[in-house]
Amino acid sequence: MKILLTGATGYIGKRILPTLIEAGHEVVCCVRDTKRFHPPTSIQDKITIIEIDLLDKKSLERIPTDIDGAYYLVHSMAASSDYEEMEQESAINFRNALANTNVQHLVYLSGIVNESELSSHLTSRKNVEELLSKGNYHFTALRAGIIIGSGSASFEIIRDLVEKLPIMIAPKWLKTKCQPIGVTDVISFLTQTIFHPKTFDKNFDIGGPDILTYKEMLLEFAHVRHLKRTIIIVPVMTPKLSSYWLYFVTSTTYKLAAALVDSMKVEVICRNHDLNTILEIKPLGYRESLEKAFLKIDSNSIVSSWKDAYISSGINITISDFINVPSHGCFIDNREKVIKNRDACIEKIWSIGGTNGWYYGNWLWKSRGFMDKLVGGVGLRRGRTNKNSLNVGDALDFWRILYANKTEGRLLLYAEMKLPGEAWLEFKIKENKLVQTATFRPLGLLGRLYWYAVLPFHGFIFKGMLDALTEDV
Predict the structure, then answer these.
(1) 3-state helix, strand, coil in the chain (%, to 5)
(2) Helix, strand, or coil (residue 309)
(3) Using CA of residue 42, residue 46, residue 51, residue 52, what is the dihedral sign?
(4) Are strands 147-148 and 331-338 parallel, antiparallel or unpaired?
């Protein structure tokens, strides 16, 4: 069967793609930016890639007419203040585009919406579900709550809270009950639902066997990690204070934190487990899902991470718009140093960031990350998805990877920290030298003042980083 996969660069999309290929399907991957899509080489001859924007009706004409099924795995939660309107418009455009195809079945991954009063986020999911269900095809909505897996937003936020805070003074929404589900089970439900007649024109809640409060989830996570944690719940935290608490402790953006807090006040518990019976799936429990996630982390085989989505920075960019580094009207710090071992130098560059830090003046990088958090930026907490590889479009601390070619020996980063301007950092092997270039394009007078204010630090931060990258190589 030929399947259209939207959200192919997303957290779920990256994970379901190889499973669909393994099941024998031909997959058409829909992406907004082909430069940040890196499917495994083993499946590249089995997929087709098309570049579309769900808000651009003209681009949707690229969808092949001969598709048999489709997945809608697109969400814009907290991407902008009007994300609800964006999600509805995207759903309508997609539904209308499918009317020109032979699609038989559309599967949508939604959120559990069984409460009478829903958050804005869950209300938007429900509205999208209703809009998509009106197409001339069979439609199935799978409604999930908290998804647990290596790299998932929920998992990483829980991990940040538990591993950083021995004692938590937490808001009352930690008493809210939910029904978490492991990401591998989500993939199983999605892949086995497509084209299954018993799922046509219905919606199902999917969840694991455990119903837990968020407090119980945090404490169970601590137990799995062999950490002793104390949680004190106070009734005085307003939603705004709760959002700031989540934002400063974890790697989430403030907009996403606010949306999550809004949703965490609503219980997300499955109505029934009908789909488990239909598909003969027995989901893992919460602890088993955690242990499976850490096996992936320990083996350094994380397939996807929510931090690599643009939502993790709160901005929306197209890589091709920034890959050509400007020079006119820019401040440039250019340094180069002779190297003896090209491969060793490249390995150092490809290991930069995350737990390895930036090789020199790490406390200054951390201070800059903390300052960025104070003004609503991403800070340094996103880290990196994989210890060994860097891919275009991935987040790298408070940078976004624009270009990464290990054979060529070139890495280009774009700053996603809060700045009065735009900044790039480039590492390039040229003949027997490492060329390191920091470029800043100021925005008005404030941008120029910023550059001169940090200029004294550049002298030893950038020099120290270059020396460390070329030391013994």
Answers:
(1) 40, 20, 35
(2) coil
(3) negative
(4) unpaired
CA distance linking residue 220 with residue 248, whole number of Å: 22
SS3 471: coil
Q: Quote the distance between the C-alpha of residue 284 and its chain's center.
A: 23
Both tokens assigned to 167: 């004692």
Rounded to a whole number, what is the distance in angstroms from the first to the last CA of the chain?
Answer: 51
pLDDT in tens, 36-78: 787 877 888 889 999 999 999 999 999 999 999 999 998 765 4
- pLDDT single digits (tens) 378-437: 777 677 777 778 888 888 888 888 888 888 899 999 888 888 888 999 999 998 899 999
CB 105 within 8 A of CB 169: no
Residue written as tokens 């080489």? 41
Interacting residues of 450 by C-beta distance below 8 A, sequence separation 6+: 419, 420, 421, 442
Structure tokens at 190: 């999605």
Q: How far apart are CA 348 and CA 134, in angstroms?
A: 53
SS (H, E, C) 409-425: CEEEEEECCCCCEEEEE
457 sits in which H/E element: helix 444-470
Dihedral (Cα; 89, 95, 97, 98), 10-degree rounding: 160
Separation CA 209–CA 180 (nearest Å) = 8
Contacts of 260 (CB under 8 A, 6+ apart): 121, 153, 157, 246, 252
Task: Using alpha carbons, list the distances in angstroms from residue 240 to 136, 227, 448.
Answer: 42, 29, 34
E strand spans, 32-104: 47-51, 69-72
**What DSSP designation does 34 have?**
G
Query: What would the pLDDT profile of 124-170 be if each residue is shown by its tens digit?
Result: 888 999 999 999 999 999 999 889 988 777 887 888 888 888 888 88
265 by DSSP, 3-state: which? coil
